[in-house]
Design brief:
mainly alpha, flat
Length: about 110
């Protein structure tokens, strides 16, 4: 529904999950905030949300979310830059790390 992509609503949900200290939901909500920010062209805010989400994914041990976030960060760098070789290589580092995670934890992704 429309509320899912309403940044104010998401921020309220984030505050609730922070009060509950639910690191899994904090990470997921920050990820959605990053996606919404990316879609409206606010790349700086998007990367901030993704990196915060990655920190919480690490704390909660959610390797699937970590892989998603690494891919989202890589995609963001490709989308937000002019596409030079260094940008592609930097984005590739995030994709490579996500691939390593998925190989290590292959059973969880099945």
């Amino acid at each position: 529904s429309g509320k899912l992509f309403d940044r104010n609503y998401l921020k309220q949900m984030l505050k609730l999950f922070e009060e509950l200290n639910d690191t899994t939901q904090i990470s997921a909500t920050l990820n959605v905030l990053g996606i919404v920010s990316r879609h409206i062209g606010d790349y700086e805010k998007s990367i901030e949300y993704y990196k915060r989400a990655l920190s919480f994914a690490n704390k909660s041990g959610n390797v699937r979310m970590k892989a998603y976030l690494l891919c989202n960060i890589g995609n963001l760098y490709i989308q937000s830059e002019t596409g030079g070789d260094s940008t592609a290589a930097y984005a590739g580092d995030f994709f490579f790390e996500a691939e390593k995670i998925s190989q290590i934890d292959r059973d969880e992704f099945a």
